[in-house]
């Protein structure tokens, strides 16, 4: 595989020589932060829709639209409002949220993608966090064994110690709340803004994408949301979680050879069968014909 070595200017010639001799030394690797929304970014389902179906409630979408049109709550905070104030949703307890998370269908190959990011790519390493407006219990349940709970920031709810009833919100990670989380992560990890990537799909991601673009970060939309697509640097549409690697490899890491990208996918048992590259990347990714030659494919 072709390897690109990036050498930054330095007044110390010995540092430059070290970069050339040991480009993959842990101390020389570039460290990237990838932060992602959850609902319909890592999953196919909306948490509120799944929870409502589990409870036998059929008018969730109508209630959300009503709240959105009234501008009563932050975009993405509609479910939290219903959990606190709507009589039909007051029955929800922590265990219901955990069960709803187990019912959510995740995008294909999400677990192998997390493993690859943890291993690093071409000498670069990645730290992955989820920043979601959904209740933290739902996201932790859905991503159990895939993303560690300490890397998940969701809406935090308070419960009555005896009845288990939701009593208040400790932290709402919707709208500008996502900006606050991203700022905190950037400060704690010490990662430059131009090495931060955010993935999102909906109106709740507008604030954080605008903020990251202003700070020279990189934003990826995974839907054609009319509010989000014009803001994101790239838009990628696919049912496979690996698809978000395309703009990261091309625009963030700097890979220019498509065959290099295809080779990486093939090493993980995937073929990029369709790659319609306009202003939106549309990908169809399937298992390779020779499954025994590559890494086993895990569909989640």
Descriptive labels:
single chain; 300 residues; alpha/beta; Rossmann fold; disordered N terminus
How does this model look, in words?
With 300 residues, the protein is α/β, with parallel strands linked by helices. 35% of the residues lie in helices and 20% in strands. The protein contains eleven helices and nine strands. Strands 4-3-2-1-5-6-7-9-8 form a nine-stranded mixed beta sheet, with helices on both faces. Strand 2 (125-135), helix 7 and strand 3 (152-159) form a beta-alpha-beta unit. It is globular. Residues 1-27 have low confidence and may be disordered.
Itemize the secondary structure elements and their pairings.
Elements: H1 13-21, E1 31-36, H2 47-55, H3 60-70, H4 78-85, H5 94-103, H6 110-119, E2 125-135, H7 136-142, E3 152-159, E4 166-171, H8 176-189, E5 196-200, H9 206-214, E6 218-221, E7 234-237, H10 245-253, H11 258-267, E8 270-277, E9 280-287
Quick overview:
The protein is of the alpha/beta class. It has helices at 13-21, 47-55, 60-70, 78-85, 94-103, 110-119, 136-142, 176-189, 206-214, 245-253, 258-267, and strands at residues 31-36, 125-135, 152-159, 166-171, 196-200, 218-221, 234-237, 270-277, 280-287.
In DSSP terms (H or I, runs of 4 or more residues), the helix count works out at 11
Radius of gyration: 21 Å
Q: Secondary-structure element order, as H and E?
A: HEHHHHHEHEEHEHEEHHEE
Q: Report the major sheet.
A: 9 strands, mixed
Strand content: 15-25%
**Could you say how many structural domains there are in total?**
1
The CATH class is identified as Alpha Beta
Task: Detail the poorly predicted runs.
Answer: 1-27
Q: Classify the fold: give the CATH topology.
A: Rossmann fold
What share of residues is helical? Answer: 25-40%
Name the CATH superfamily classification.
HAD superfamily/HAD-like
Strand order of the largest sheet: 4-3-2-1-5-6-7-9-8
Average pLDDT score: 87
Cα end-to-end separation: 29 Å
Total number of beta strands: 9
CATH architecture: 3-Layer(aba) Sandwich
- Choose one word for the global shape: globular
Structural class assignment: alpha/beta
């Amino acid at each position: 595989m072709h390897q690109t070595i990036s050498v930054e200017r330095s007044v110390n010639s010995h540092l430059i020589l070290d970069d050339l001799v040991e480009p993959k030394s842990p101390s020389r690797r570039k460290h990237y932060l990838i932060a992602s929304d959850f609902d319909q970014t890592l999953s196919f389902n909306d948490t509120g829709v799944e929870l409502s179906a589990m409870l036998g409630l059929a008018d969730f979408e109508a209630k959300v639209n009503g709240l959105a049109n009234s501008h009563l709550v932050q975009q993405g905070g509609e479910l939290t409002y219903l959990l606190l104030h709507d009589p039909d949703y007051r029955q929800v307890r922590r265990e219901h949220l955990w069960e709803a998370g187990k019912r959510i269908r995740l995008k294909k190959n999400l677990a192998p993608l997390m493993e690859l990011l943890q291993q690093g790519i071409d000498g670069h390493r990645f730290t992955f966090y989820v920043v979601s407006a959904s209740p933290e219990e739902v996201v932790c349940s859905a991503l159990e064994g895939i993303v560690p709970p300490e890397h998940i920031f969701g809406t935090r709810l308070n419960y009555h110690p005896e009845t288990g009833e939701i009593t208040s919100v400790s932290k709402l990670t919707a709208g500008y709340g996502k900006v606050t989380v991203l700022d905190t992560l950037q400060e704690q990890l010490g990662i430059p803004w131009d090495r931060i990537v955010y993935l999102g799909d909906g109106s709740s991601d507008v604030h954080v994408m605008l903020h990251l673009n202003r700070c020279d970060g990189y934003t990826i939309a995974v839907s054609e949301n009319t509010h989000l697509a014009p803001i994101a640097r790239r838009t990628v549409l696919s049912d496979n979680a690996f698809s978000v690697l395309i703009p990261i490899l091309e625009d963030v890491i700097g890979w220019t050879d498509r065959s290099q990208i295809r080779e990486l996918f093939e090493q993980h048992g995937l073929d990029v069968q369709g790659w319609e590259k306009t202003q939106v990347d549309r990908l169809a990714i399937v298992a390779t014909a020779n499954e025994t030659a590559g890494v086993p494919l895990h569909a989640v």
